[in-house]
Amino acid sequence: NAGVTQTPKFQVLKTGQSMTLQCAQDMNHEYMSWYRQDPGMGLRLIHYSVGAGITDQGEVPNGYNVSRSTTEDFPLRLLSAAPSQTSVYFCASSYSTYRGQQQETQYFGPGTRLLVL
Amino acid sequence: ILNVEQSPQSLHVQEGDSTNFTCSFPSSNFYALHWYRWETAKSPEALFVMTLNGDEKKKGRISATLNTKEGYSYLYIKGSQPEDSATYLCAFKSGGGADGLTFGKGTHLIIQP
């Protein structure tokens, strides 16, 4: 298994540009989520999905869109990039939620480092 | 916004010494408490998921305890080794919905040879 993969690894954008961060997992996990990691802030939840066709907002959803058309893929879209979105983005997945300890364990992708100028 | 606090923020420990650090979280509506280990330039990796008050988990030299009534968890490392150097994250999950995890800011552990 490749686990959780993310592309690109690094991206530079200009203010106002849009882009999609890709996330895929091959573990048949129901639950997928996106976090951003900023210095001194820890990991903050942007959006999450409990299954194909279902998404919901996390703590910091503004400026981002998600969709979950398949179990495997959970792309994150920046609609109009702003310097405040400069961050490292992590995608994570788990078997499910609220179904037991091992199934709750989240597996993280390698991260996408985004710089918005 | 749920408040998950970790202390200390950073910690320097001599190789061979044992150490511990704390995660505090809301004591109401508890569902699970996660611990992750995050090495520089890598992704967070799961250590433990704990759901029951009084739970104790162990993986090699690392162990964790959970007190849901008072809202804290301790992570212990026995006989620290240089490879234990990492940031240790705890994450809280509340019950009653499909919300994601709320992470603390982590404890950055440096093991000095």
3D structure, described in words:
The complex is a heterodimer of chains A (117) and B (113). Chain A has one helix spanning 101-104, and strands spanning 4-7, 10-13, 19-25, 31-38, 42-51, 54-57, 64-66, 76-78, 87-94, 107-108, 112-116. Chain A is globular and about 35 Å long. The mean pLDDT of chain A is 91. With 117 residues, chain A is mostly beta strands. In chain A, 3% of the residues lie in helices and 50% in strands. Chain A contains one helix and eleven strands. In chain A, strands 2, 4, 5, 6, 9, 10 and 11 form a seven-stranded mixed sheet that branches. In chain A, strands 1-3-8-7 form a four-stranded antiparallel sheet, with no helix packed on it. In chain A, β4 and β5 form a beta hairpin. Chain B has strands at 5-7, 10-14, 19-24, 30-38, 45-50, 56-59, 62-67, 72-77, 86-94, 102-103, 107-112. Chain B is globular, with a radius of gyration of 14 Å. Chain B is 0% helix and 55% strand. Chain B starts with a strand and ends with a strand. Chain B has 113 residues and is mainly beta. Chain B has no helices and eleven strands. The chains are: A mainly beta (117), B mainly beta (113). The A-B interface holds A 4, 31, 33, 35, 40-45, 48, 50, 56, 58-59, 90, 97-98, 101-102, 104-111 and B 1, 31-32, 34, 36, 42-46, 49-51, 89, 91, 93, 95, 98-106.
